[in-house]
Amino acid sequence: MTFEELNRNLKENTSLFYKSFGLVDEATQNKKPDINIWSIAQNIEHLTATNQSYYPIFEKLKNGDYSAPFIARVGFIVTLIEKLILGSVEPERKQRIKTFQVWEPSASYIKEPLEQFAQSQQLLADYVHSNWSLFEKGTVISSPANKYVVYRLPVLLQIITQHQLRHLNQAKEILQLVK
Prior knowledge:
single chain; 179 residues; mainly alpha; Four Helix Bundle (Hemerythrin (Met), subunit A); 7 helices
């Protein structure tokens, strides 16, 4: 994947969210169909939180201060973890998966979730651009949620974009329930 392809994917995903929910009022975006189901806004905030959780890692990479755990040096484990994660974030949800606490959305009313998401997408693209040589090298990082979950930066891009489409589909399902 080139940087241009990634940038296009992030912009397309942002556009899909705006097309799907841009005309939906904020109150409806924050409506939960059930106490155990996230609202549309919570799904979007979750994606924003996910993007933002990588910013400190990108800063450390840019400054040469990042240190991956030992497990990141074991190639077959990295590949196995990548396959497991990519399978769990496929856009077509077969089952619900509990997220890590660091990515949990707030329980309160979320203002301007689409705008916050769009800003986080642009900042993510900026961080990726400034660290692109590390993406080309296949640098391995650990997840902000668990240091033993490791993957190569190019795979992170796949994870992020697939994960966004998964939550787009989830939010579309929720819209049908709260209309």
